[in-house]
Design brief:
heterodimer, A: about 600 residues, alpha+beta, Penicillin-binding protein 2a (Domain 2), Beta-lactamase, 2 domains, five-stranded mixed β-sheet, five-stranded antiparallel β-sheet, B: about 375 residues, mainly alpha, 3 strands, about 70% helix, globular
């Protein structure tokens, strides 16, 4: 007991602890009384709630916002549809009920199993969709057997419907069931089984379109029949979206491309509003709105023609002769060439030791800038390109929007490529050869552009230097402020525009697009896919011997209102194929808007 | 490190009660999660074994050394908490985890042990009759640094469980009228600022619906109603092990964690709850009783802080399950599923055992 003395007296502390301990005892008594009340006194009430009545929670899907064209024509809407879901906790014997359901709904047992397996992590009480787009007979078949199938429920849900099927499918996009990856990144807070926009406007403006889910809490009896509704939060529909698209122009563009591969872009040069954007071949987005992967889908993604690709923003093509406008602008602005300087075209020329031909074998004769553009003379532009040099060409083409995204409100736009010596050194680790400058001068060689870039480039020319950002979602303010001017004088544009006007209205390569009294200005292009030597070997039968056919232009010359850009893959000469298609579009626009 | 005398002084009854409560928890974790994917019961069993080993290992270090070095531990812990906030893994909206190869660890739980040691250090030589304002503020500061970091994660439930550590120190130190008034004012201020700045809307809803959960049965009142239905429908003897319709099939989303008591109430009824409460009371009571065996002031503080912290969490969780406290995400210590919480509570009890077994050793 010697040690005891060196310990301090802790008894005041002990008293406080004892007091607290007594407090804890009191709390335990309070708890006992509370549990007594809940479990003994109120037992009947809670027993009824838990056993005789069961509470079921159901989600109510919201109406997705409509997508309309600029005049209110509905391009995407919703129709009523029914889906059958299984609630696993109501199964008496899971395996057996799977078998019975697969017979009742005529589903492959493996497909059904796979489906349920995919959602096995969901709580047991949550319905898993096993079949959607039910026929009315199927609905009544299930409804008649609720006693036999307490685990099967029918829910109605608004289903997306695109009344014009493939019309503007690449712009509108399509819906499909959300993927695991999307739930973690793109669409956080969404649930398994939700349908979400995968491409186009449906994807871009998913958050606006989707709306807010509602929930019902309902009391159901032991076989799953609804007894009463406890509470309900109604779903709130998504926001409607009005696009800048013009239905008539879009329809016409689709008709013109029918049976071809290619793209059409029509826009308003002053604002950047897209009036039509078409890509062919196309697809019917109605076929995707199904929770099961349909065979058509597999066919589409495996097709060699890539119908799902939006060629207007993702197709990379050599610009060919339509690039000559950029060259002309750059040459005039940098004073490398004056508009009256002439070069003689004899049909071919020898540059840096290689013979180069004009597309017109007979030769154009003496060409100044206006005639060079009008006749799309290669020899003229070889010389201009040679005088300018690749650095200047690259500088002006970037200024005019090539090599970077246009920032249209669609996902997946490609950038294209403006080649220069730096690029070649970086990517190919080779020096730039002067001969390549000659190819680039007429839009061939490594340079690639997208049709939307070409349309914006044309808009910039039509605006005499004002650049715009293209858009599809018509917001409340029609005009966007974020436009800028390129460092080229309006006067320079006037000269090039004069050349474009002559190309269409003075018997040039673009004459096929002429519309009486509408002052169309344009430029054609035909891009070679293989050299003429190879073409001879392959013979005329081979598809790739034909050139891609380009036309881009605007109208009217003064106060331009519309830009039309057309690309037809393997379409042959631009003047022969693309220009007449453009004529139809200019004509239709004029009839509707410019009387 | 441990001599034979000390071994003889290990409180085996306390360890027995600790393990008993953990095993009760294990049984109901199994019942409420056997149909879920994730093998929760097995994981919990592994955690019990790990925690028990940690408990014995931790005994080998004299608690006074731990207290002496506590400031160093504290600095490291606060840095880790800040690190978690910056680099932690985001799970269900809160950054509170460090991911290890096999298990995930929640530093905010383990940090409680360090805070207990630091406060024990601060108060070890404090012999005045009442707590001074300076002392109160100093100790509050040490508690609030980690609390703010944890609240920012945001994990308000865990942050809440730090309050009893401070509270118990104040109770032991004794509060004069002046200190009490200042503390009440400070508490109110923090409450108001916390309500308007820190609390998320859903948390505010939980508190407001406490008054009448039936008004919003789909929203914040939902869990509360479901939990009460589970407990109430259990009646006197319950529906039987693994036969609770509410807990087996129903809506309690955290039935193996925060709402484990609802499962016990449904499946074993009032008798089950009484038995469970009795086991728990014996455990808590023995913890408090251990104070008598402490030889120094430091020991008394440690034991009391541990006992009150566990009691407080227990109280909040039970009141939550019967709808008398907002859903705060506080698990039932020892019983609920969750490794970090279990390990922390075992280490806390280990501290108590540590104090008790070194009661006869000379300074």
């Amino acid at each position: 007991m010697r040690e005891k003395k060196i310990y301090e007296d802790l008894s005041p502390l002990h008293n406080k602890v004892q007091l607290t301990r007594f407090g804890v005892l009191v709390i335990f008594f309070i708890l006992l009384i509370s549990f007594w009340k809940i479990q003994i006194l109120d037992h009947n009430k809670f027993w009824k709630q838990s056993e005789a009545n069961r509470i079921r929670e159901m989600t109510l899907p919201p109406q997705r916002g409509l997508i309309k064209d600029r005049n209110g024509e509905i391009l995407a809407t919703n129709i009523a549809s029914f889906k059958a879901s299984i609630i696993r906790e109501n199964c008496r014997d899971f395996e057996q009920s799977c078998q019975k359901i697969s017979t009742l709904l005529e589903l492959e047992p493996e497909v059904l199993k796979e489906r349920i397996d995919k959602y096995k992590d969901l709580p047991l009480f949550q319905p898993i969709v096993v079949k959607d787009n039910l026929l009315l007979e199927e609905v009544s078949k299930v409804k008649a057997r609720t006693i036999e199938f307490p685990e099967l429920i029918i829910q109605s849900e608004p289903k997306r419907y695109y009344p014009y099927k493939s019309l503007a499918a690449h712009v509108i996009g399509y819906l499909q069931e959300i993927s695991q990856a999307e739930m973690q990144s793109l669409y956080k807070g969404r649930q398994q089984g939700d349908l979400v926009g995968k491409t186009g406007i449906e994807r871009e403006y998913e958050e606006k379109l989707v709306g807010q889910k509602g929930r019902i809490l309902e009391v159901v009896d032991s076989v799953g029949r609804r007894r009463e509704e406890i509470s309900r939060i109604n779903p709130s529909p998504g926001e409607d979206i009005r696009l800048t698209l013009d239905f008539r122009l879009q329809k016409k563009a689709d008709e013109l491309l029918e049976g071809r591969e290619g793209a059409v872009v029509i826009l308003k040069p002053d604002t950047g509003e897209i009036l039509a954007l078409a890509s062919f071949p196309t697809f019917d987005p109605n076929k995707f709105i199904n929770r099961f992967t349909p065979d058509e889908w597999l066919d589409l993604i495996q097709s060699p023609e890539f119908p799902l690709e939006n060629r207007a923003i993702r197709g990379l093509y050599a610009p060919g002769s339509i690039f000559k406008l950029a060259l002309a602008l750059g040459a005039l602005e940098s004073k490398a060439v004056s508009e009256w300087k002439t070069y003689y075209c004899s049909g071919s020329i020898n540059l840096y030791g290689n013979p180069r031909a004009c597309w017109f074998r007979g030769g154009h004769g003496s060409m100044n800038l206006y005639d060079g553009i009008k006749n799309s003379c290669n020899i003229y532009f070889y010389q201009v390109g040679k005088t300018m040099g690749i650095e200047k060409i690259a500088h002006y083409s970037r200024m005019l929007g090539f090599g970077k995204k246009t920032e249209i409100d669609l996902h997946g736009e490609k950038m294209g490529l403006v080649p220069d010596p730096d690029w070649k050194k970086r990517v190919k680790e080779e020096p730039w050869y002067p001969g390549e400058t000659i190819s680039v001068s007429i839009g061939q060689g490594p340079i690639t552009v997208t049709p939307i870039q070409v349309a914006l480039y044309t808009a910039c020319i039509a605006n005499r230097g004002k650049k715009v950002i293209p858009y599809l979602y018509q917001k409340k303010t029609l005009f966007r402020e974020d436009t800028d001017l390129v460092a080229i004088q309006p006067d320079t544009f006037e000269k090039v525009i004069r050349g474009m006007w002559k190309s269409v209205n003075d018997g040039g390569t673009g004459r096929g697009s002429r519309v009486d009294g509408f002052d169309v200005c344009g430029k054609t292009g035909s891009t070679q896919l293989v050299s003429s030597a190879t073409a001879k070997k392959l013979g005329v039968e081979s598809k790739i011997v034909k050139t891609h056919s380009w036309f881009t232009g605007f109208a009217p010359k003064d106060n331009p209102q519309i830009v039309v850009t057309i690309l037809v893959e393997y379409g042959g000469m631009g003047g022969a194929t693309a220009a007449p298609l453009a004529r139809e579009l200019f004509h239709l626009f004029r009839e509707n808007y410019d009387r | 490190m441990i001599d034979r005398n000390q071994l003889r002084n290990i409180d085996w009854i306390l360890i027995g009660l600790l393990v008993l409560n953990s095993l009760i928890g294990l049984a109901f974790i199994h019942s409420s999660s056997h149909h879920l994917y994730g093998n929760y019961a097995l994981k919990q069993l592994v955690w019990i074994v790990v925690s028990l080993s940690a408990l014995f290992l931790f005994l080998s270090v004299n608690y006074r050394s731990l207290v002496n070095y506590s400031f160093y531990f504290y600095v490291v812990t606060v840095s880790i908490l800040a690190g978690v906030l910056l680099f932690g893994t985001l799970t269900s909206g809160a950054k509170s985890w460090i991911v290890l190869p096999f298990f995930w660890i929640q530093p905010s739980e383990i940090a409680k042990i360090i805070v207990i040691l630091v406060l024990a250090n601060i108060f070890s030589n404090y012999k005045r009759e009442y707590l001074t304002v300076g002392q109160a503020l100093l100790s509050s500061l040490f508690v609030f640094a980690p609390v703010v970091l944890i609240a920012l994660q945001p994990d308000l439930g865990t942050a809440l469980t730090y309050i009893p550590i401070l509270m118990s120190a104040f109770i032991l130190a004794g509060m004069g009228r002046k200190t009490l008034i200042i503390l009440v004012i400070l508490g109110l201020l923090i409450g108001i600022v916390g309500w308007s700045v820190f609390l998320k809307d859903y948390q505010k809803e939980r508190i407001t619906t406490l008054v009448s959960p039936e008004k919003d049965p789909l929203g914040a009142g939902y869990h509360s109603i479901q939990s009460k239905i589970a407990i109430g429908s259990g009646g006197f003897l319950g529906k039987g092990y693994k036969k609770g319709t509410q807990s087996q099939l129903r809506f309690l989303p955290a039935r193996h964690t925060d709402f484990i008591l609802s499962v016990i109430g449904e499946e074993f009824g009032f008798m089950g709850v009484v038995t469970m409460l009795l086991c728990y009371f014996l455990f808590l009571s023995r913890l408090f009783q251990s104070v008598i065996k402490a030889r120094d002031r430091t020991g008394v503080y440690i034991i009391f802080m541990v006992a009150l912290t566990i009691t407080f969490q227990f109280g909040i969780n039970v009141f939550m399950t019967i709808g008398l406290f907002p859903i705060a995400g506080v698990p039932l210590p020892l019983v609920s599923y969750g490794g970090s919480s279990l390990l922390t509570n075992y280490l806390a009890v280990s501290l108590v055992l540590n104090v008790k077994m070194r009661r006869f050793v000379n300074v």
